[in-house]
């Protein structure tokens, strides 16, 4: 009897349940999601502190790009042959390049997280899955701001005149960050969709290289052939570069490029962010 009772008790014992977040993420409210995101942001920042090499791109890329284009190409393609004028023309455009560079690294990072087993550990944690992606967006946006800060320091050393331009420069930084955040969601979606980091990098280079050089980031579209200038005018990178240049330097139209940049940023985020979160949830439950 005792043995039978023991067997009955063992058979009736409930099976352990998975964490609530993994069973139904809809039960997690916005406040809990924000708390989870904050905890993951702190975790990611601690990882950067333990591995400072992960900030190499944000710290060195602004220096390399600025020196390369100013001293190698500035005297040739600078407006009127003036290196100082070309530096002023280039710096707002380089803000866009830095946003793209940081965003591209996010895609390969997400892909590597799945391959290295990091996401397997997150599966067992009672947290909102969306908080993992939101934390990455917050941290990478911070890295983007660090890169832009380094760029402005280098620009000041090269003679960029900041006097009386701080409000416009601050607005240009804010707009660039908004646009860069929308690019982060695109590359996270690529990182969740493509199988390897090499595929992400290859596709990114193929798509972004024409967009970068067929824009107003490095030269004015007025110097291009008519067919290329027509494409440049509808290029979202041109809108962003013109908006940053207009805000920071007070040159050229501002309202139109700013409006188009906001439209592109909101549209890309509204399209890719839900897709990225949905793709992430499927991958973490499969």
Description of the molecule:
Helices cover 79% and strands 0% of the residues. It is globular and about 60 Å long. It is built from twelve helices and no strands. The protein is mainly α and 286 residues long. Helix 3 (30-50) crosses helix 7, helix 7 (129-157) crosses helix 8 (166-193) and helix 8 packs antiparallel against helix 11. It is a multi-pass membrane protein. Residues 53-283 form the ABC transmembrane type-2 domain. It is found in: Cell membrane; Membrane. InterPro entries: ABC2_TM, ABC2_TM_bact-type, ABC_2_transport, Nod_factor_ABC_transporter.
Summarize the structure.
With 286 residues, the chain is mainly alpha-helical.
